[in-house]
Structure formats: C-alpha cells, structure tokens
Amino acid sequence: MAEQNNNSDKRKFQFIYDFKIIESLLSFNLVTFKVKHLDEYHEIVIDPNDERYEDKHQQLFEQLESITGVPSRYTTEFILRRNMNPSDVNNTERYLWSFYNQKAFAPDIRRFSTYRDIFSLNIRDGERFHLQYFISYGQWTSKRISMRYALVEERDVPEVGCIQGYCHSRCTEPYFKRLKDLVNNDAMNAKITQLVQPLFESGNSAEVYKIFRDFNIKQYLYPSCDEGYRRRLAVNGHAHQIDLYSRTRG
C-alpha cells in the first residue's frame, strides 16, 4: 500500500514537472513589454501561439482597448518607432513600422497588408515604450474619425518638450479624454462621414478642412506642436500658424 502511494506521488510530481516544462517552453516565445499611458505602466503580452489571430499584432489592439478605454474597432493603426540597432547607443536612426487593425476597416474597403511581423522587431523582454495618440479621418480605412497610436522607446522620450512622434503637451488626461470623446461620438461621426467622404473621394480637400473647422475638430486632427513651431522658425525665420479653429465658435 505504501509503495502504491509512493508511485502515485511520483506520477503526480512527474506530471507537475512536465507541465512546468511545457509552460516554460510556451512562455519563452512570448513578447512582453511595458507601455506607459498617461502616468501608469501597463504590461503588453503578444503570444505567437494564439491561434485566434492570423495577424499576431491584433492582440495589441485588444490590449490597448482595455488600457485606454477606446474600442479597438475605432482604432486603425499603431506605429512603432524602432531603433533597429539597439546595441549602438549613439544610433539616432529610427524606422517607422505601421501595423493596421484589420477589424477597423469599413466593410467595402480593401484591407491593407502588414509587411512586417511584430516579432521581427526584436522587442526585448520588459522593454518600455510611451504611448502617443492621434486621431485622423480614415478615408481609406474606417470612413470615420479613428484613433491611432505610436509606441516610442522610453529612452527616446525627452523629459520635457517634444521629439518627432512624441509630444508631452499631447500626453495629458484632458487632451486624451477629448480625443476619446470625439472617436466615441457615433452621431457626430455619422454626420461627418456623410459630408466629407464624398469630398475626399473627389479630391476636394479644401472643403473637407472647412467642414472639420466648422465642427471645431480640425485642431485635433492636425495639431500644432511646439517642436514643429521651433523647426519652422529656425528654417524660415517665421512660423505661420494655420487657422485651425472655427471663427464663429464661442
């Protein structure tokens, strides 16, 4: 009887050991990194073995939805600014890789292919990124105002001010809430789509911009940036400010 119990314990131990080995092998291929949204870090996990996703980067859109509260169906793209030679600390060259949300495309729009696999970007375990957000009207994708994200390596983010692709003044809770409200406003989006989609398709961008200004949203679709202002000033000696606001607004 004692020998029987001993054999049972051995089998149980072997099962647990085998399970741990399998679990370890599966987790070895996971891509795990941190994303800072506003003032809080969140963990992102991309699983290459998750068969629910043909495009594995789709997992990121769903996890960003739980982090930001913006439905992933209203998010068209995320851009990753990547140093492809991270061992060179003096390397300032960055590549922009775009990943499209296949679930955000309008039914009659042909989906864009993603030419880069997210696993080929060699994201290191525990690496940290800051989340920058934008909104745009997706005339070739969603046919509505949609959210877009950029992931910027933490070491590239300055303590103050802006760099290309990241602006501290646009990473605040009030600013993000305003973008989120615009994206989630289905009634307003339906009106805007009806007005501007035909104009985009006919190439009448001047009238499109006028409509955006009348809805008082152009300043969010085409935001000014202090860094951009300084660059224009350095190059031209002046920095012309585009009229982004409705002249009749209160």
TL;DR?
The protein has helices at 2-28, 58-68, 173-184, 186-202, 205-214, 218-221, 226-236; strands spanning 31-37, 40-46, 75-82, 95-100, 127-137, 145-153, 162-163, 166-167. It is an alpha/beta fold and 250 residues long.
What does this structure look like?
The protein is an alpha/beta fold and 250 residues long. The protein has 2 domains: 2-184, no CATH class; 185-250, no CATH class. It has 7 helices and 8 strands. The protein has helices at 2-28, 58-68, 173-184, 186-202, 205-214, 218-221, 226-236; strands at 31-37, 40-46, 75-82, 95-100, 127-137, 145-153, 162-163, 166-167. The chain has a 6-stranded mixed β-sheet with strand order 2-1-5-6-3-4. A two-stranded antiparallel sheet has the order 7-8. A hairpin with a 7-residue loop joins strand 5 (127-137) and strand 6. It starts with a helix and ends in a 14-residue tail after the last helix. Mean pLDDT is 81; it is low at 19-27 and 238-250.
